[in-house]
Amino acid sequence: MTPYTRGTLSRHAMAYVLAGGRGSRLYELTDRRAKPAVYFGGKTRIIDFALSNAINSGIRRIGVATQYKAHSLIRHLQRGWNFLRPERNESFDILPASQRVSETQWYEGTADAVYQNLDIIEAYHPEYMVILAGDHIYKMDYELMLQQHVAQGADVTVGVLEVPRMEATGFGVMHVDEHDRIVHFLEKPADPPGIPGNPDMALASMGIYVFKTSFLADLLRRDAVDPHTTHDFGKDLIPYVVANGKAVAHRFSDSCVKASRESEAYWRDVGTIDAYWEANIDLTSVLPGLDMYDHDWPIWTYGEITPPAKFVHAEEGRRGFALDSLISGGCIVSGAAVFRSLMFTNVRIHSYAHLDGAVLQPDVDVGRGARLTNVVVDRGVRIPPGLIVGEDPALDGARFRRSDKGVVLITQPMIDRLSL
């Protein structure tokens, strides 16, 4: 690979984040917000990871396409990502679906969400486009992917994960040759092709693509007038380039960012209640898979001003404490016991409550004597005093949403129905 000065290519690139999806497998967690706006890790939102990767990689032009129930997401972006300045040749554009090309047409696919804003993109004159999904948790240096794209003379470079072959049936899978040139793209194949030299593993698409902007613009304009397309990168554009151009796979292991304490190339799709709970609770481990304390690759977000967390009461049987847990600013643990849990900002836990494996979103209030085990509690929920969740599967399933692995999702409408 040709050596490049650090950040050379990223300075000439624009990151375009596709953040319009609902994330229906998160059920009620996305009733009021898009999946990229879902809270994660105590302070951040899911979209902050893709955006932080772009900033930390040296990219200073960013666009975010929104569609489904975008208010929460747009408000977060306005509050937390307004530091990019046009006078420094930086830009941050929030691009809601707004019928820009037709009075009846919203974003009709991932490719269409870029095509409808092509005039805005071209006005900035970026040489390269980095297309990103806004709903995954990972740390990645896009500069390295840009370097590979240029060095190999690719028309498109696709970010890929190495996964066990039979676990790749739910992904778009790249069939590559010995030089990682993509020879076939298969959408959710029943029998995924293995990697040359490693047949038990397959290459799954991460939904990350690098293009030269001029090539992408031509590709999008061609796709826009094709009556047989679904206007989707994975279903339409990438297979077209595989068949008619040069498509190359970029392995996540070549550009993932790992702190000294991280042993794996961490990437998570937290698109189910179980996956969401597991990824958040893993952060409470002594050595979690994702290091949120890495100062060399910070995860930027909206920094809400809150007082410090507080733990009060030290009486026998009424001692406020938390073990193996993450407690955010503004939280008060008042005479309650908290184990292996994660609390977002401004959570209140009242006396004699007991939490184990709880993920509590902002502004949750847990009443006296409540016992919560393996739960996800939506923002602003008021848990009644004495409520017990996580100990009786049949009762949990009747009152709340219980996952296949026994994680219970609690929302305020579910609580309100208890009193009817």
From TrEMBL:
Subunit record text: Homotetramer.
The keyword Transcription regulation appears for this protein: no
Family classification: Belongs to the bacterial/plant glucose-1-phosphate adenylyltransferase family.
EC number: 2.7.7.27
Catalysis: reaction(s): alpha-D-glucose 1-phosphate + ATP + H(+) = ADP-alpha-D-glucose + diphosphate
N-terminal signal peptide: none
Function: Involved in the biosynthesis of ADP-glucose, a building block required for the elongation reactions to produce glycogen. Catalyzes the reaction between ATP and alpha-D-glucose 1-phosphate (G1P) to produce pyrophosphate and ADP-Glc.
Keywords: ATP-binding, Carbohydrate metabolism, Glycogen biosynthesis, Glycogen metabolism, Nucleotide-binding, Nucleotidyltransferase, Transferase
Broad EC category: transferase
Glucose-1-phosphate adenylyltransferase/Bifunctional protein GlmU-like C-terminal hexapeptide domain: residues covered: 307-410
Binding residues annotated for alpha-D-glucose 1-phosphate, in chain numbering: 107, 172, 187-188, 205
GO biological processes: glycogen biosynthetic process
Annotated site (Could play a key role in the communication between the regulatory and the substrate sites): 67, 106
UniProt cross-references to Gene3D superfamilies, sorted A to Z: Hexapeptide repeat proteins, Spore Coat Polysaccharide Biosynthesis Protein SpsA, Chain A
Descriptive protein name: Glucose-1-phosphate adenylyltransferase
GO-annotated molecular function: ATP binding; glucose-1-phosphate adenylyltransferase activity
Highest taxon, organism lineage: Bacteria
Annotated Nucleotidyl transferase domain residues: 16-284
Pathway linked to the protein: Glycan biosynthesis; glycogen biosynthesis
InterPro entries in UniProt: ADP-Glc_PPase, ADP_Glu_pyroP_CS, GlgC_bac, GlmU/GlgC-like_hexapep, NTP_transferase_dom, Nucleotide-diphossugar_trans, Trimer_LpxA-like_sf
SUPFAM superfamilies: Nucleotide-diphospho-sugar transferases, Trimeric LpxA-like enzymes
